[in-house]
Every structure is written in structure tokens, then in C-alpha cells.
Specification:
five-stranded antiparallel beta sheet; 16 helices; Immunoglobulin-like
Amino acid sequence: MTAGRDDGAPAFGRRAFAFGLAATGLGAGLLRPGAALAANRPSFPCPSRPGDIVGLLLEGGGGPAGSVATFGQAFRPGDLPAGRSLQARLTDGQSLPVQVDVRNTHPDGSVRTAGVAIAAPALANGQMAGVLLSAGPASQSQPLAASAWAQRQAAVQVTGDNNRSWRLELMPLLPAALERGRAWQSGPLAVQGRIEAAVPSEVAGRVSSLRLVADVAVHSDGTLRMDAWLRNDIAMRDGGGTARYTAAFLLDGQEAGRFEIGRHWQYTAWGRLAVARGQTAGNAPRVLHDAAYLADAGAVARYDLRTGVDDAVLGEMSRVMADRNWATPLTARSITQNMHQTGGRGDIGPATQPQTVWLMTGDRRAAAYAIGQAEAAGSVPWHFWDPAGGSAAGGRNRPGPGGWLDTLRWPRLWTDGRGGPPPGGLTQNIASDTGWEVDSAHQPDLGYVPYLLTGRRAFLDGLQAQAAWSVISQWPAVRETPGGESVNVVRGNQVRGAAWSLRQLDNAAWTAPDNDPNREYFRVASAGNWAWIRSNIPKWTQEQGELHGCIPGVYGANGALPPWQQDYFASTAAAAARRGNGEALAVLRWMENFLAGRFLAGSKGFSPRDGAAYLIASQENSNETRPLRTWAETGQTTRRKDMSNGDGWAKTQGDYAQLALQSLAALVDLTGTTEARNAYAWLSGAGAPFTRQQDYRRDPIFNIVPKTAGPRC
């Protein structure tokens, strides 16, 4: 199991007064009282015709009419049924050419997630245009002809410190990558295929674990895109280790980038998206998504889109990105490298703070920051590639086409150095000088939202690699689930570690394309965890008595329970339940007894103010094993141990009330009980610290609310 650090955090130890992106270099002292709002949710066009699905905005980049914008899009069940095509029109009724590449589907066969391409009208820099997507009659179209790239060039050249070079010309390999069932995009506006090759050891610092993964796309407007990644991630083979080389990216005979890589540690990756526009001036438009619709689709949490974000938060993002080190491969780009670190972390939640700002406002600065950190996530040493992996769909003992290291093929594997030699541990252990200390209890989700909104396949790779690591980083002795799979990330873990590990598994399972070789494993792992939790509900209910509804877990403060960790887990359960996971909804309904009850038990002797305290008592004495089982004895012991807020909020000087509110908001949406509504109403009006609108404008990461009545846009 991943070693969990005993935080021993005092009441002020987490996000106390440190609002604004501390983990990304944006910390306390950033904002002045009364700072002006710079970004609010823009107005999206509203569906108005039969078949209309959702409105989007195009923000112009100076490109001519026909410039192709590509992006990712999630759909509600039933909105884009099987056999229907996607259509697009401007708000004035003008039709736009559109292409949809389905990634996966809902149980009813309708589209869940897809890559979308739109041929946009001419838009000046910053000019906005509203677009409506709708479901139309089935149609067929031919993919872009090979003549569109016949004279184009894309190549990657790697040169070792011994001056030996290896060069891979990508365009001759593109036709094979576009064969039926392999293409990432295939239509009249865009084609995209993936090309992979091992980098010869003699040019990679004499290691055999380095590979090139390049996603090459050609658009109908003449754009050539190469998303090229050097992944030193091949695991469970001899010859792995640190690589040293120089990499050059070339497009149409021009060098698009040259990178000196002095140390490329094993189990890490880096990449860059290079774009050549041919003879076309200007850039394709940027796409702004309707976050309210994405919440309806179960893709993201339901953020309060009325709040806005303070200018200083976005301004500081620009300042950080202007630093020349931002562009250097394998740097952290302000991601917290010591993930054991607590305090004002702007990267821990259902999404990171830059991603939340991006969803809420569509601001290009937040988008660039979140995308940059998704790229930098490649430098975290949790990428373990198995060339014979991805075999779950074909049988556990059969080799697959390649996939992330999983416990169906390696049931005893543990990435901790204590795993020993294979098959218990890695063939090469993770280097001790990477600069990273990874920890499942404090891991941020850096790839899911960027993949969801951009559709960049490299970000899906990052999401899947992290999800697979979330399992194999757990001690094998606690990983078994009722189905016999070694995938349990909850048993023996910190509750926050369980929350964030299961968040990764659920996001990977929900987004995995239908033909993805990793898909079945993530679904097995997600389902196995929720089934295990639900199977333990009767036992936990008996053990916890009147307070039942708490996920058990390891925590450093003996005799105490941190309610905010239950809120972390509630956010993961709520996300899964919104997507139709019945097991997760059953777990959330069970948790409601505690999540809502802590604010409604005043008449039973437990102060509602203590429902949002940093800690409440869980045992009479720290050396006892008998848990407190009534609200009365819990309230009394909490006061005796000086954990209580009393008549004030001294023990809630952090984001604890925000965390509780987001749990209650999810309960209002998903269970709709009187208890959930009453608890949410009480806490919303109680004046708890950091629950004012100006607090959320400075730090919106948990600005999650129930769905309101009325039109969405």
C-alpha cells in the first residue's frame, strides 16, 4: 500500500487563508480586498430546435473561413443516439461542416464522448461566435484524401551523447495508422493516426526503455499537427534506466523545436504539440464548452457558474507561464512535486483549480495553464508501459497489443521498492533523484479535464497511466476484491487516498474508448472497488451505530475522525453516481446518514458547527478500539478533547465548510432527501469560514452547488 504520511495537521494546517493556486505558485497574499472580477461565465447559445443538444462558443484566432477547430465533447445519455449524425450551425442559422469521431458510448448506444471537428467561419482574434450542436439524420462522408498530405513532412530525430542519430519520418507511416479501427480521427475535416516506435538504445543513453509516440493529424484547412512524446516508460524488461539525448521535431522541412534532455528518468514522459499551418495565416478558433451541460452529462462537477474569478488569480497564471522554465521539458510547471505536502494545495479536488477556472470561465489563461500542467504530468514517475499489456479483453494470460501495467497480468506487483524482484516488484526501481515524491493520498488529477475538453490523445495516456499506478502502488496484500481481482484501492488506505485513487479509476473507465485495450481493466477495477465497499456496508453500519456512513481508513490522529476526508470520498462517489453507477449511488445514500446527519444532530448532543470541524472524536481514548456510536457521546468527547468549535468556528479555519457544502450539494442533486436539503440550507446560512462569494472567487475549486431550476443557458 502507498505509504501514507501522518500529517498531524493542526486546524490551520490545510487551506487556511491560502486561497489561490498554492500548488501552482499562486498562494496566499495574492489578492487585495475588493479586487475586480476579470472572468465570468460567458453567455452560451441555448438549444431552441428539436434535436438541439448544446451550445458552444468559438473564440477567433485570426484564421480564414474553413479553419478547423478540434475539441473533445461529452454527451448526455440519449442526446446523440446511435445512427444519428452530429450537425452544427451558427446562431444565425448558417450550417457549419462538422465531423464527429465517437470514442465511447452509453449503455443505450448513444454517444458518451467524442472528438469533434468544426470548419469555422472567419473570426478575428478574440471574436466570439455561438454554435449549436444538434442530432440530425444519419449521413456518410469520406475521410480526407491522402493527397492532402502528399507533400507534407513530419519527423522526429533523436541524437545521443555519442553523436549517433535516429530519425523517424512519420508521414509515410500515416496511411497504416489510419487503417480501419486504428484512426483517432477519420473524416472530411481531419484525419489523425498514432505512430509508435522504440528508440534504439545506442542513441538513448544505452537504455532500451525509451519509445516515441506521435499523434499526427492533417486538417482540411492545410494544418499539420504533430503531438510527439518521448516516453521512457517501458517496464518489466532488462535495460531500462535514465536516457540522455537531444530531440528535434521537424515539420515541412522546418525545425519546430530542439530539446536537450540531459536526464530522462525511467517511468516519465514529455511531449510537445507542433503545428504547421501551411500557407494559411492565422490560427483556428478556440472552443469554449458549456460547463453546465457537461455537469448534466456527468462529465464534471456542478460548479456555481455565477460566481466569477478574481483577476489576480488569472493574472498570476500568466506570470507563472511567462517564466522561461515553463517551456523546459520534464519540469514540474508548478505541480507540487512532494505530494505528501498538505496545506493550501490548489490541485486537490474533483479537478485542479486551473481546470475549475477553465470550466467556469473558459478563460484562455486558465486553459493554457491547465493544458501545460497536463503536459508536465508526464514527468511524474507513474508511467509504466507493458508492451504485452492491454490483455484483459482477450484473457488474463494472453499477451495484448500493449497497455499500462495492470494487476490482471501482474497480480503480485507493487511499485514500491519493497516489492522485491519481479513478479513482486519492478525490474528497475524508480530512481530516487527524480525530484518527485508521489502519494496516492494527495495525487492531483492533471489529465482528465484537459483530455475531456481538448480530445488530445496524449492526455488520455496520462490519465490511464496514473489510474493504473493508483492500483499497483497499493500493497498487494490488501488489494483483493470480491471478484478475486487485485484492484482494491480502499482497504487499508487513507480515506483521501481511496477517494483520489478511485477518482482516477472512474475517470479512466468512463473515458476509455470502446476499442481501447486498457478499457476492460479500468472497468473491472472501478466496479470491483464499488462492489467491495457496498458489500461492507452492513458490517460498517453495525460498527458505527448512529454515526454510520463513514468510509473506514487510516489517519494519523488516533481517536479522531477527519470529516473532510469523508467529503473527499463523497465527491468521488457523487461523480460516479452522476454517471449512472448504481453501486456508487448506494454508497452515497449510505454516507448521507453521516454527511447530512452531522449538521442535524444538535438535539442529540452534537453541535452542527462541529460537522465542519477539522477533527471530531471517534474514540473515548486514543488507546481504545471501541468506536463512539452515538451523536451524544461523540459530541461530548469532541468537546472534552478540545476539538469542538463551541459557539464559534475556531476549528474550521480552512476549506472544511466548503468541502461539506459540496458533499451536501451532491446529495441534494442525487438523493433529494429532506435531510440533505435541510443540512445544506443550514450550513449555507451559518456563516462558516470561507463560504462567502468573495472566497469562492479567489478559490473556486470546491464551488459546487445543487442544480437550480430554470433554463441552463
